[in-house]
Specification:
Length: 139
């Protein structure tokens, strides 16, 4: 089963734009074709980002959808607390994604963050944009 990590920017994009990408991943997760992973630090980043004024303004008409998704994410996604700290990213806040990737030996980290995308791969984890992941898996 594929082990997938979603960067916070992918989730925020989904909540703001109603993109099909995250919906497709959740469907595949529910079918047992992949597993989505998160860490407490990533979840904290997500909840803090959702509280930022500019994000709140973008999603204010979708509060029920946001609350439903956050609850789903909190209770249906596998949470892992990485034990090793990594310090290789230009933006130190990005290290939490690599720490989780290392801890679970993730197959893919899906992101829109150029600093992470520039790495292309971290150990066994391929780092891809959503469109490249869709092309790769034909979803």
């Amino acid at each position: 089963m594929l082990k997938i990590i979603l960067d916070t920017n992918i989730i925020i994009s989904f909540l703001v734009t109603d993109s099909d990408f995250v919906k497709k991943l959740i469907d595949l997760k529910n079918l047992g074709k992949l597993e989505l992973f998160c860490s407490p630090e990533i979840f904290e980043e997500l909840t803090k980002t959702l509280q930022k004024t500019k994000i709140k303004d973008l999603i204010k008409v979708k509060q029920k959808k946001v609350a439903t998704f956050v609850a789903y994410y909190k209770y249906k996604i596998k949470f892992v607390r990485p034990s090793l700290k990594i310090d290789i990213c230009l933006d130190p806040r990005d290290n939490i994604f690599l720490e989780l990737a290392k801890a679970i030996q993730a197959d893919y980290l899906i992101t829109g963050d150029n600093d992470l995308l520039d790495l292309k791969k971290f150990e066994v984890t391929q780092i891809l944009k959503p469109a490249d992941f869709v092309d790769l898996l034909k979803i």
